[in-house]
Amino acid sequence: MKKKHIALFFGSFNPIHIGHLIVADTVVALPHINHLWFVISPQNPFKQKKDLLNQYERLELVHLAIEGNDQFQASSIEFKLPQPSYTIDTLSYLHEKYPDYDFSIIMGEDNLLHFHKWKNYEQILAHYYLIVYPRLGYTVEKYQDHPRITRLEVPYIDISASYIRKAIKEDRPYKYMLHSKVYNYIDKMNLWK
Q1: Are 61 and 182 in contact (CB under 8 A)?
Q2: pLDDT digits (tens, 9 = 90+) for 180-190
Q3: pTM recorded for the entire structure
Q4: For domain 4-158, which CATH number applies: 3.40.50.140, 3.30.1330.60, 3.40.50.2000, 3.40.50.620?
């Protein structure tokens, strides 16, 4: 029996925006991918917690953004694991919990540039696949022809969660950078004001 292949989209999703959704939609169109899990990170070891919304609220925003799409799933798996969250630890946990699944990791070209700084990155590359999407201003030659790395053809999407948070604080327009349900929730709950 063929193993189910899950693409893991790790992130703070602080908040989830249309850039994330466009990448995710492109990934699940790949012939070998069955499902995509948005893995909400309680704390990224490379990011400050200052502007980080509560993990359960970020999980709720992801649920709202992907509602009705059977190929997408929101995952709170890292909420149960020690913090900060290291990808290799989460992958080991998932491999134990789902031995019949294969996993790929989705990352931006900017993350690939710093991939050698990740905990046990060689082990990740030896046992898992990477799906890399382009980021404006980043080109990483090092892994150009690596057999475990797939380059995603997707437009450059120069939207960031930090830009959206700043726009909210400064009362500037940001509505169309988000799924409408995410926008409505943020607006109703006065998040990042």
Answers
A1: yes
A2: 999 999 999 99
A3: 0.94
A4: 3.40.50.620
